[in-house]
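Lecture 7 notes: from sequence to structure.

We start with a single chain of 143 residues. Read the sequence below before looking at the structure.
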Amino acid sequence: MKSSVTAAGAGLLFGLGLGFSGMVQPAKVIGFLDIFGHWDPSLMFVMMGAMAVHFVLSRMIQRRDQPLFDSKFHQPATKAVDRKLVLGAAVFGIGWGLGGFCPGPALVTVASGALSAVVFVGTMALGMVIQHGVHASKTRGRR
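Now the structure, written as tokens:
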């Protein structure tokens, strides 16, 4: 129960930050990506702020023996940059550039009922279902 409340609180804080920073507006993202036109650097400053918060808090967290709401820290099994990682990053970036939404801001914007966000989140969810099915069928084939 504690971890669910913490996750909901973190999600709410993230959503509020996106809303206050204006990053739920596709025009902001497209303005940041338009480096040869009317470039809008505000997304860069939001990212720099997020990196600063992460830098400070990750140092504090790493000093702990265990997390507050779990029995152990969960680290990635590998740090290798492989084909799946590069392909996933490319698909993410292409979707972000074409749709004008990053998944987090899209979820926040869905609450406003904006059709573009609803369509984006719906197709994103469909993509997740398809990926899950493909991954499951590949995993079954390896047994």
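DSSP finds six helices and no strands in the chain. Keep this in mind for problem set 3.
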